[in-house]
Amino acid sequence: MTPYRNPHAALRVGQIIEAHLTKSGLSYRDLAHRLGVSDTKVVYFVTGRHYLPVEFAKPLAEALGIAQGELIYSILLQYFPKVEVDAIWEAIATHIFAQQESGEDGLDDERREKQKKKRTKSR
């Protein structure tokens, strides 16, 4: 079975990159350097010729000042139908909300703080 690909979504991701590149004042070369790819690869992402991998979401969002959630949602639309992306998005939101409600998120912060204190004391 051929994997799902949506060329219109790839073009939309490229439009988002282009618009934010213009606002940020970064060049294709600057962005390519930050992502660790060639200038040509950035051009391919912007033109929709290549699909932007999810692993580039965070560095791209940071480089261009894009809301990471908006960017990831658009990236996922390249690889999955909208119905599936919406289901994934809802599942993630439900999971995060459940963690916050149960206080699990706070426990992770407490563990990190304890580990940080242990490392500081051992030095």
Q: What form results from the Cα inertia axes?
A: globular
Number of strands: 0
Report low-confidence residues grouped into runs of 5 or more.
none
Proportion in β-strands: under 5%
Radius of gyration over all CA atoms, rounded: 18 Å
On the 0-100 scale, what is the average pLDDT? 90
Oligomeric state of the chains present here: single chain
Distance between the termini: 55 Å
Structural class: mainly alpha
Order of helices and strands: HHHHHHH
What does this structure look like?
The chain is mainly α. Helix content is 77%, strand content 0%. The chain has helices spanning 7-24, 28-35, 39-47, 57-64, 68-79, 82-102, 104-122. Helix 1 (7-24) packs across helix 3 (39-47) and helix 4 (57-64) packs across helix 5. The mean pLDDT is 90.
